[in-house]
């Protein structure tokens, strides 16, 4: 999963929370593996090769808290 987030947020509490939640060990496997493999990219790379990923999480600092899901792609 591609995570578009500035380095400052990724290396802080926000990034820790994302990694602890989304890349936590998958329980029940004989060896330790994460639920998801996360690849972090700076938010400025939204245009370009990362937009071809199937799953993208965009995290950015805003004045208000919000969460939205945008589904796009070829059918």
How would you portray this structure in words?
The protein has 75 residues and is an alpha/beta fold. Helices cover 19% and strands 12% of the residues. It has two helices and three strands; from the N terminus they run βααββ. A three-stranded parallel β-sheet has the order 2-1-3, with no helix packed on it. The longest helix has 10 residues. The chain starts with a strand and ends in a 17-residue tail after the last strand. 9% of the residues are buried. The model has no long low-confidence stretch (mean pLDDT 81).
Q: What key attributes describe this structure?
A:
single chain, 75 residues, alpha/beta, 2 helices, 3 strands
Layout of helices and strands, plus pairs?
Layout: E1 2-4, H1 7-10, H2 13-22, E2 39-41, E3 56-58
Parallel strand pairs: 1-2, 1-3
Outline of the structure:
The chain is an alpha/beta fold. The protein is built from two helices and three strands. The longest helix is centred in the N-terminal third of the chain and has 10 residues.
Order of helices and strands: EHHEE
Enumerate the spans where pLDDT stays under 50 for 5 or more consecutive residues.
Answer: none
State the strand order across the main sheet: 2-1-3
Helical run tally: 2
Count of β-strands: 3
Return the structural class: alpha/beta
The main pleated sheet reads as: 3 strands, parallel
């Amino acid at each position: 999963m591609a995570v578009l987030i500035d380095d400052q947020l990724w290396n802080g509490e926000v990034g820790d929370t994302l990694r602890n939640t989304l890349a936590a060990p998958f329980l029940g496997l004989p060896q330790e593996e994460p639920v998801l493999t996360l690849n972090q990219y700076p938010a400025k790379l939204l245009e370009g090769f990362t937009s071809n990923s199937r799953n993208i999480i965009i995290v950015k600092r805003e004045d208000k808290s919000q969460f939205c899901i945008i589904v796009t792609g070829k059918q």
